[in-house]
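Task: complex structure prediction.
Instruction: return structure tokens for all chains below.
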Amino acid sequence: MTAPAELDIVTRFGTFTVDPADVVTFAHGLPGFERCRRFVLVSAPSLDPFTCLHGIDASEPSFLTLDPRRVVPDYDTPLGDGDRHRLGVAADDALLWLAVVHVDDHDAARVNLKAPVVINPRKMVGLQVMAADTAYATDHLLDGA
Amino acid sequence: MLVFTRRRDEAIVIGDGIEVRVLRTGRDAVRIGVTAPHDVPVHRREVYAAVCAANQSAASVPVTSLEQIAGRLRLHPPPEPVE
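Output:
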């Protein structure tokens, strides 16, 4: 008998050990990283206040992510019927919303509030919402938010 | 590229269950209706491209930025968990 192997995740933000049960499937990957279908979300004191969404397929992309409500407290992006279906959302599912952080050419931190990553922890599936009609920007300035 | 001429209310069908219909035409714009199975995401190309660019940039955030960003952030407190 062998115990379920733990997964060592090597990111540029550190090496973390995760449970294989924590792997989240993105059926279509993320835009720009369509071939990466499996991700893990790493929380660690060294990353706080961020979490690291790390791909374990293809080019193994790593993203710093943040709860968008820590940037805009009343943050609300509606989830369309198609996205709800793809996430397998049931009425009482608590979804996990993540905004992806990037750094611009002037070294300013920005966060993508227009296209949040949404994970349904009950199904361990996720996707990046592609909202066209939203006032949020892909490059909301994070510094001093 | 396949090129079609379609009039208003005419459509094309792609594969199994994807239909693209011309709803209205104007001088500079065409209103299009897309019917697709739920597991097929449909996006405006420029929105998808903008998110691609943001993701590409995000995937190359240098590790040195982490502490710098975190150090100068003033975030709102974490929201209360919903019971």
